[in-house]
Amino acid sequence: MINKIKKIRKEDAAFLFGFILIVIVVLATFLRPEMKKKEATTAEPENQIALPVISAKEAQLKIKNKENIKIVDIRAEIDYKNEHIVDSISAPAEKFGKFDIFTNNNGNNVYILSYSGNEKFNEQFARKLRENNIGNFSFISGGLDEWKNSNGQTISYGNPNLFTDQSKVNFISPDDLKNIIDNNYPCFILDIRSRELFSQGRIKNAVNIPLDEIEKRRQEIPLFKEIFLYGENETEEFYAGVRFFDLGFFATRILDGGLDSWRKKNFELVK
Question: Where are the beta strands (DSSP E) in the chain?
Answer without folding.
Answer: 53-54, 69-73, 83-85, 89-90, 109-113, 137-140, 154-156, 171-172, 188-191, 207-208, 227-230, 252-255
